[in-house]
Each structure stands twice: as structure tokens, then as C-alpha cells.
Amino acid sequence: MSCKRIADKITGANTVANKKLKLGHWSQGLLQAVEDPALLVKSDEFVNVIKDKYPKAKFHYLVVCKKNIGSLNEITKSDMNLLRHMDKIATELTNETKHENNNFKIGYHAEPSMARLHLHIISDDMNSSFLKTKKHWNSFNSDFFIPSSKVIQSLEDKNKLDLPSKEKCKKYLELPLLCHKCSYVPKNIPDLKKHILSHCLK
Ligand code: AMP
Ligand code: ZN
User: Fold this and answer.
1) What total number of domains does the chain contain?
2) CATH code of residue 75
3) How far is the CA of 198 from the centre of ligand 2 (A)?
4) Which of 2, 27, 132, 181 is the most exposed place for a label (fewest CB within 10 A)?
5) Given this model, what pLDDT does residue 20 score?
6) Which listed residue (85, 118, 120, 136) is catalytic?
7) What pLDDT, on the 0 to 100 scale, is given for residue 99?
């Protein structure tokens, strides 16, 4: 083993976890986004609200917490007030935003790809050129998407969150495509995207 590899092994410098912590890694993008005035919508002592850079619907914002919490996995009951605050900020935003009579969903991805705990606020048109894959679709339209109210409720009831396992998350993302507003079963993503437009026009 080379000296560098031995040193990395001792310090843990080359582990996947530590690679992800490197500034500039794509998974740290939200921390850079909160510094970008073009994306920042509002902020307070506890959170930054940003526009999602690759929105999966006409309206898609993220409430990013300032406390160094990676994801729901790290949440304990002591973070209850923070979760309630994130939910309140998200709900206020949906009330402020009159968006073509859209409904909004407020929730977390069970297995997020980006670092720093963030809450999605997304309009239910799901009409966006950035929505390109089954994974994108299912991440907002299956139990992979955990409503903020459910997270708060289960933390109130128990001391820790029961999050779906890795296997379950994989299954949710691989579910067959299904319209979120009716029983239409699309053949593929282009078919689904064409179909959901009919709901937007109603
Ligand atoms: P997830 O980690 O799966 O809960 O979602 C991360 C969200 O962050 C996705 O909706 C992405 O479109 C969005 N995103 C990825 N990179 C950036 C970035 N640099 N700035 C703002 N939003 C981003
Ligand atoms: Zn439909």
C-alpha cells in the first residue's frame, strides 16, 4: 500500500462520506445556491428559501435549513421546532403565491441527493422541461416523497423518524408511471408529459 493510501486510511480522507463533504462537490450545491442572489427568495435566522435550479414543476422552491443537518436521517426530537418552522415558512409561501390555482405539496425526499436538510415546496402541475425521468416523477409522486406534516407528526409520536429503507426507496423510484391526478397509465415519460398538460388546461 502506498504512503498516501495508508495516510488516507488513517485520516479517512478518501472515504465516500468525506469525498462528499468536499466543497465544490455537486452534492454541496445547495450551500452555494443559498449564496446566489438570483436563487435566494428569503431567509431568516434558521432557514434560506431558494428557487430550485432544476424545477420539476412551474413552482418549485426549497427551504434549506441553516443548522448543519445533512438529512432527515440525522433528525432528533430536539429538532422539532426547526421542522415546524420549516413547515410554517413553506406554508406561508404557498399562501403568498397565487399560481394559476395550483395546489402545492410540501415534503422531503426519503433519500435526498443533495446535502443539508431541505424541504420541497412544489406545485402539483409537474409541468417542467427539467422533469425528464421516471425517477424524477416517482420522487414526487410516490411514498418516496414524505409530506412535512407526516414527518412532524411521527416525530411528535415517537422519538425517532421511521424512514423507508434503501430497498423501499429504490422500489418507489422504480414504480410504473401513473398520472397523479387520474388513473391514466402512460406508456413513457413523453406520453405522461403530454397527458398531464390536459390537467393543466382544466
Ligand atoms: P433532493 O436532494 O433529491 O431532495 O433534491 C435536491 C433538489 O435540489 C432537486 O430538486 C434539484 O433540482 C435541486 N438542485 C440541485 N442542484 C441545485 C443547485 N445547485 N441549486 C439549486 N437547486 C439545486
Ligand atoms: Zn391524468
Assistant:
1) 2
2) 3.30.428.10
3) 8
4) 2
5) 46
6) 118
7) 57
